[in-house]
Write a structure and sequence with these properties.
Blueprint lengths: L4 E5 L14 H10 L4 E5 L6 H14 L3 E4 L6 H7 L3 E3 L4 H10 L3 H10 L4 E4 L1 H4 L28 E3 L16 H8 L8 E4 L3 E6 L2 E6 L3 E4 L6 E3 L11
Parallel strand pairs: 1-5, 2-3, 2-4, 4-5, 6-7
Antiparallel strand pairs: 1-8, 7-10, 8-9, 10-11
C-alpha cells in the first residue's frame, strides 16, 4: 500500500481573502499531524522566484513553520532528499514542469512522496504536476517541457480552477467541460477531476477525500460527467 500523504489545492487565493487563507486550517493540520516543522517550497511556476518565496515564507512562518525555497539551494535534488515536506506553488504549469525536469526533480520527488511518504502540498500548477500529466491545465504553453508527463503522485488528472458553464452567457467559446471531453477523445486518457476554487483533495494512502468549499465534477472517458459532494472519498480513482 502506498504511503501517499498529499494535499492538492485547486488554488491559493479566493476572492476576498489573502494568500492561502482559505486553506490555512487544512494546511496547518496537515503539517502538524505529520510532525513537520520545516517546509521546502518550490517556486518554479513563476519567474520572480525571490518575491514568490518571500510571500510563501511570510505565510508559513506566521503559522509557526520554517520554509526554505528550493531555488536558493545549491543542489535541488539534495534539498528534496532531506526535506520534511514539499510545497509546490501555483503559476504556469508548463514553466513549472520544465523546471522540474531541468533540475532532475521528477524521480526525486516521486521517490520521497510515493516510497518514503513525506507530505506533499500542491496548489494550482503544483496540483497539476502532481497528476499523470499537465494535459488538462488551463495555462498557456509559454515554455516547452520535454514531456507533458508529470509526477503521477495520483493516477488521474485534475483540472484546478474548474468553472461551470454559464447557461445565460452568449459567449460561444468552448466550455471547460467541452475541453475536458476533447481530452478524453485521446485513447487511454485518465479520469479528470474538476476542482472548483476553494476546494482540495486530501490523499492519504488509498483514501482521497474532497474537502473545502465546493463539490467536484468528475469526467471519465465514455461516461457522462458526475457531480460529487464534499466529503466524497475518491479512493476508486486510486486503483
Amino acid at each position: 500500500m502506498s504511503p501517499r500523504n498529499i494535499l492538492l489545492l485547486s488554488n491559493s487565493t479566493i476572492h476576498g481573502s489573502g494568500y492561502l487563507e482559505w486553506a490555512a486550517q487544512y494546511i496547518k493540520e496537515f503539517l502538524i499531524s505529520n510532525d513537520v516543522t520545516r517546509v521546502l517550497f518550490v517556486p518554479y511556476a513563476l519567474r520572480k522566484m525571490d518575491d514568490y518565496a518571500e510571500t510563501a515564507h511570510k505565510k508559513f512562518t506566521s503559522w509557526g513553520f520554517e520554509l526554505d525555497s528550493i531555488h536558493s539551494a545549491e543542489n535541488p535534488v539534495a534539498a528534496v532528499n532531506k526535506a520534511e515536506a514539499i510545497f509546490i506553488g501555483g503559476g504556469n504549469s508548463f514553466q513549472l514542469l520544465k523546471s522540474l525536469y531541468d533540475n532532475n526533480l521528477i524521480e526525486a520527488i516521486r521517490k520521497r512522496v510515493l516510497l518514503e511518504g513525506i507530505p506533499y502540498i500542491g496548489s494550482s500548477a503544483g496540483t497539476n504536476v502532481a497528476t499523470v500529466s499537465i494535459s488538462t491545465t488551463n495555462d498557456m504553453p509559454i515554455v516547452y517541457p520535454p514531456s507533458f508527463s508529470a509526477l503521477a503522485l495520483v493516477p488521474f488528472n485534475i483540472n484546478p480552477h474548474y468553472i461551470d458553464a454559464d447557461p445565460s452567457s452568449t459567449h460561444m467559446g468552448e466550455t471547460r467541460e467541452g475541453r475536458i471531453n476533447q481530452y478524453h477523445e485521446i485513447p487511454d486518457a485518465p479520469p479528470v477531476l474538476g476542482l472548483r476554487e476553494g476546494s482540495l483533495l486530501h490523499v492519504t494512502g488509498q483514501s482521497a477525500v474532497l474537502k473545502g468549499l465546493h463539490s467536484a465534477r468528475l469526467f471519465r472517458p465514455g461516461k457522462l460527467p458526475e457531480e460529487f459532494p464534499l466529503g466524497t472519498d475518491f479512493s476508486f480513482l486510486l486503483n
